[in-house]
Amino acid sequence: MTLAPGHFVLAASGGSLIGFVIAFFVAFFVALWISMIIWAWRDIRSRTQDVILQIFGTVLTAVFPGVGILIYLILRPRQTLADLYERQLEEESLLAEMTERQTCPTCHYRVESDFQVCPSCATKLRRACPRCDRLLELKWNVCPYCGYGAGDGGRAGMRQSARAAER
Ligand SMILES: [Zn+2]
Ligand SMILES: [Zn+2]
User: 135 CB contacts (<8 Å, ≥6 apart)?
Assistant: First the structure.
C-alpha cells in the first residue's frame, strides 16, 4: 500500500491547523493571565500601601490563573485608599460643622447664626441694626454693614438704641 503524496500534505496541513489553534488559545490565555496579574497589581496598590500584601495579592493571581483572581477578589481590602481618604475628609468636615454650631451661652441650646433670641430661654443673642436691619453681635458698637453708630456720638447713640431695644 502506498500513500499518495496528497495524504501527507493533508495530514501536515491538518496538524499545523490544530497546532495553530492550540498556539492561538495558549497565546490568548497567556495574554489573559498576564492582564489578570497586571490588573491585580494595580488593584491591590490602590487598596493598600502594605508591600507584602501587594506582592501576596499579585502572586496569588499569578500562581493560580483564574482561580487566584477569584480568591483575591474575595480577600482584597474592601475600600480603596481613595475611598478611605474621601471618607476621612467627610468625617472631618462633619466634625468641623458640629463644632461650628453655635449654642446659647445661657442654656447651651443649639441656635442658628441668624437667631436674635434663644428659642429655649429667651436670652438675647443678637440685635438688629436700626438702620439696615442686619443682625449685629451684642458687643459691637458700630454696624459693620452700614456704618451706623460710627462718627459723632455714634457710639452713645448705638448704645442708646441697643438699650431701647432691650427694653
Ligand atoms: Zn438659651
Ligand atoms: Zn446697619
Answer: 114, 116, 126, 127, 128, 129
What is the whole-number distance in angstroms between the Cα of residue 115 and the centre of ligand 2?
Answer: 17
Nearest ligand (C-alpha, residue 115): 1
The arithmetic mean of pLDDT across residues 114-131, rounded, is 92
| 117 and 150 housed in the same domain | yes
For residue range 48-58, what is the model confidence (pLDDT) as tens digits?
Answer: 999 999 999 99
Contact 135, 126 (CB under 8 A): yes
Distance 149 CA to ligand 2 centre (A): 8
d(CA 148, CA 165): 15
Within-domain flag for 36: yes
Range of the domain at 50: 7-82
0.70 exceeded by pTM: no
Please give the distance, rounded to the nearest whole angstrom, from the Cα atom of residue 57 to the centre of ligand 1.
Answer: 58
Is 123 a domain residue? yes
Q: Are residues 116 and 77 in the same domain?
A: no
